[in-house]
# Entry
Amino acid sequence: MNISQLLANIVQTKIDIEIKGLCLNAQSTQPGDLFIALQGKLTHGADYINQAIDKGCVAILVDSKEIECVIPSIRIDNLSQYLQTLANTFYKNAIKVNIISITGTNGKTSVAYFISQLLTKLGIKNGLIGTLGITHSQQLSLNTTPDILTLYQVLDNYYQNNIHHAILEVSSHALTQDRIAGLNIKQAIFTNLTQDHLDYHHTLDKYQATKEKLFVLDTVESVILNQDDSHYKHFLNITKDKKRISYSLGDFDSIKTIEQGFLVQLDHYVFEIPFLGEFNLLNILAALNSVEALGFKRDDIIPLFYQLLPPPGRMQRIEPHLAWIDYAHTPDAIGNAITTLKKHYPNFKIRIVFGCGGNRDKDKRAEMGKIASNLADTIILTNDNPRSENPKTIIENILSGIDDSYKLDIIENRQLAIETAITTLKENECLLIAGKGHETIQQFSDKTIYLNDLEIAQNSTKAI
Ligand SMILES: CC(=O)N[C@H]1[C@@H](OP(=O)(O)OP(=O)(O)OC[C@H]2O[C@@H](n3ccc(=O)[nH]c3=O)[C@H](O)[C@@H]2O)O[C@H](CO)[C@@H](O)[C@@H]1O[C@H](C)C(=O)N[C@@H](C)C(=O)N[C@H](CCC(=O)O)C(=O)O
Ligand SMILES: Nc1ncnc2c1ncn2[C@@H]1O[C@H](COP(=O)(O)OP(=O)(O)OP(=O)(O)O)[C@@H](O)[C@H]1O
Ligand SMILES: N[C@H](CCC[C@H](N)C(=O)O)C(=O)O
# Structure
């Protein structure tokens, strides 16, 4: 598309250049792209134009600022307000894709992963966009919910490749920043709301108000709500004009905990759910209701459950030990993960290795320390992703929630912490390695290193 055609409803330009794509982050610029340099909270995209040019961008739109550069550039004031128009004009097919969206503090990835597998097994081609990445696409995303241009590009591409359904994890940051504006979101699923991201939203009420935005979108036809969450009634009340579907652990006629998961009865079906954690029973119900709302029959969905795979890094067992990798990085999730192991392995002691991410909600750190020390028998505190913060300060913040009399170890180096935990694990102990799940990098202020909890744990196992 020619740039003058793209900008027709925004600004007149004599620049005559064909562009192949739109891009917000210089790191992901492709040859032929138009780079859109926005003023952000931390920095201005204009600081990265050299990188964008090196990667082959052919023109630049700059937010509220004059720049000098070797390729054509156009200044547009308040440029961010035009992002949806630009995205929609360039990636016309994006809004034709039917989107199932999931929001909530915990469980988005798990529910999305289950829905995607079910739809695939039922013969529906679908794309999955979230913390684990973007399927059927070379696009990389820095975020759980990608920026609006990346989203439109991926969805447009899906449509052209006959993928007419997408499952999208929607973070509260994405809702605040309008990353999903204008998309054809048909279903909205609510998993739960507990403490996280208060650095960004400041209060739980504001955090909830942000999540609400997804459920009242005009395009949303059905909402699927977790009745067991304390915020359920609120979400039910604001969605009176939608088809409302609720799910609850009480939907099961019986739940029997077994070592590898649960044996449940639902209506006249008795089946096994091969995942640990009661929260996964809720995740499964969310997925079941979502797929059912698309028109499939329970008789066709339920027999597929035993074939489902767990999402990578979520309660993932490291054989042969009683050790698990889990992505729990909130107070609620840490509590759930430990309780889960206690429930499935009632005669075992629990050891946990965890830390907290830097540049994220500081208030959750002491809370995570408190919950972990109340529930686990031994703790090794370590680094998560310190990002630009001092790792020692993060650990001190966690310690402030732990009673002085609680005996714990601090091993900042995460690899060493995991190796130590596994090689000294006792016969009567279960180990939980929490916080980084599937992640394969660790971010510090001055470096980013390759680090994979699963590999470290597997290798330490071999070393015994
Ligand atoms: C605090 C926050 O959410 N920031 C997001 C926001 O950034 P911003 O608009 O303030 O922009 P900025 O970082 O100041 O940068 C300014 C401009 O320069 C560009 N830039 C910036 C850096 C660079 O190296 N190259 C580059 O081109 C940016 O794309 C941006 O256009 O908009 C950007 C584009 O959409 C996001 O990538 C960025 O996410 C940052 C990286 C981030 O860490 N976000 C986290 C907190 C987040 O969004 N997390 C949620 C998941 C939370 C959960 O559910 O657990 C998520 O959806 O990922
Ligand atoms: N429904 C749930 N309720 C509470 N905790 C859950 C639930 N599902 C998963 N968890 C716990 O939370 C952790 C993160 O799960 P998951 O990745 O599915 O959530 P998420 O919302 O996608 O998180 P994020 O957006 O931060 O990546 C899991 O490793 C598990 O410990
Ligand atoms: N989506 C979450 C992931 C946190 C993962 C944890 N390992 C950390 O770095 O804090 C966030 O961006 O807050």
